[in-house]
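Is this the right way to post structure tokens for a design question? Let me know if I should format differently. Anyway, here goes:
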């Protein structure tokens, strides 16, 4: 038996589509005795979208773009106008879908353009973001080192060395020296032990007479195997 609200046996008739549906399929409405509105959720959403489009047209004089139907597991990229699988989009935890708005090629293009516009290029962006210095500070620091690696003295080093604990930039190093310090965890103790180790396991050239040198065997280690 139905009542004045069009309800019967836990169901309600939607005023738009005219279908009888369970009350759970209607939008919540605290003003109604049943706690549910007059329109089912699909019809309510359609009404909301139509109302929004009407307000936009009246207030801003433009049309709202219709929602594009996309197959499950796919996404539409507004830049290239293509529908692609979700794996072709970068991850983005801020989006409800978990993926970015633009596909990977378009996303990369936009990122490059932004870095170029704001920083003048990828190199400046990288230096500013990671080390807090720009190319000008990099060049000044390298000039103070005479254009050489601050550790080994090789020319044209390209890597910024910084204290991993404080973040302060220490100098400009070549690839090998920068990686070496990182492998030794920036520890003077470890480096000192490595120097002691090398001195005790490496043949030394000792001056025994002016212009005459003798190779002395290391105090530690074993001779190479005869089978090597």
């Amino acid at each position: 038996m139905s009542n004045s609200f069009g309800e019967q046996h836990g169901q309600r008739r939607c005023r738009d589509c005219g279908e009888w549906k369970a009350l759970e399929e209607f939008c919540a409405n605290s003003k109604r005795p049943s706690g549910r509105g007059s329109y089912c959720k699909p019809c309510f959403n359609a009404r909301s979208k139509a109302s929004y489009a009407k307000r936009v047209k009246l207030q801003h004089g433009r049309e709202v773009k219709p929602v594009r139907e996309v197959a499950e597991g796919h996404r539409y990229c507004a830049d290239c106008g293509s529908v692609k699988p979700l794996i072709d989009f970068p991850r983005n935890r801020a989006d409800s879908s978990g993926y970015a708005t633009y596909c990977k090629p378009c996303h990369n293009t936009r990122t490059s353009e932004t870095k170029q516009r704001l920083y003048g290029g990828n190199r400046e962006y990288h230096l500013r973001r990671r080390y807090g210095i720009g190319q000008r500070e990099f060049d000044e620091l390298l000039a103070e080192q005479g254009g050489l690696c601050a550790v080994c003295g090789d020319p044209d080093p390209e890597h910024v060395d910084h204290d991993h604990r404080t973040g302060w930039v220490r100098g400009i190093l070549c690839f090998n020296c920068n990686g070496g310090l990182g492998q030794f965890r920036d520890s003077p103790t470890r480096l000192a032990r490595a120097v002691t180790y090398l001195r005790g396991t490496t043949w030394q050239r000792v001056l025994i007479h002016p212009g005459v040198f003798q190779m002395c065997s290391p105090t530690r280690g074993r001779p190479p195997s005869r089978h090597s």
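Format looks fine. Someone answered above. Worth noting: The chain has three domains: 7-60, 74-116, 121-183. Residues 74 and 84 are 5 Å apart (CA to CA).
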